[in-house]
Every structure is written in structure tokens, then in C-alpha cells.
Amino acid sequence: MSSQHQERRVGILYLDIDGTVRHGKEQLGRFVNSPEDVVVFPEAVRQMKRWREAGGRIIGVSNQGGIALGLVDPAQVEKAMQRTHILCDAGRGMASAGAVSVDASEPS
Prior knowledge:
The protein has helices at residues 25-28, 42-53, 65-68, 74-90; strands at 12-16, 57-63, 98-102. By secondary structure, the protein is of the alpha/beta class. A three-stranded parallel β-sheet has the order 1-2-3, covered by helices on one side. The termini are far apart.
């Protein structure tokens, strides 16, 4: 490998969003269905910020079974994920994170 292109290993932290980064069903008594439902855990934001400052990357993952069941609109779920990202970014926790919403429905 040339000295111009040195590889640097980067730790990646995968986090299940609901119940880890933001309040989930256990804390709210219901699933997060809209941006108004989003409440992040302050300690999670602090720990994510520490991870990033140490050079790590964060990927947020969320299984959204309510989409597959037709209980929630995918656009609302995406807005809630965007709100989560904004609240975490305010603390510089998930500044480079990607949030993935998974549709658990069967392929047609």
C-alpha cells in the first residue's frame, strides 16, 4: 500500500433506535409513530458523541413492523427518524449516522 492511501480502521456502532437511542414502546406505552412521539435518551446522545469523538461511526437501525402491518404510514416513520436524527445531532451524537427503516412485509 502506498503512503498516499493509508487505510484506517474505524469502529462502527450499530444501535437499535427504539429503546436505545429514543423512547420506545416500553417507555411510551405505544410505538413511535410520528415526530411528536420522539424523545431521545440524553445519556445515549452523550455516549454517541463520545464514540464519534473517538473516531467511531454510528448506524441507527429500526425495525418498523407497523409498516408491514399497515398500522403506520412509512412517511410518518421517516419523519420520526428524521426528528430522531435532528435531536441526536444537536448533541453531535449521530452526525454521520444513517437511519434505516426496515419494512418487514413479505415480498410480492
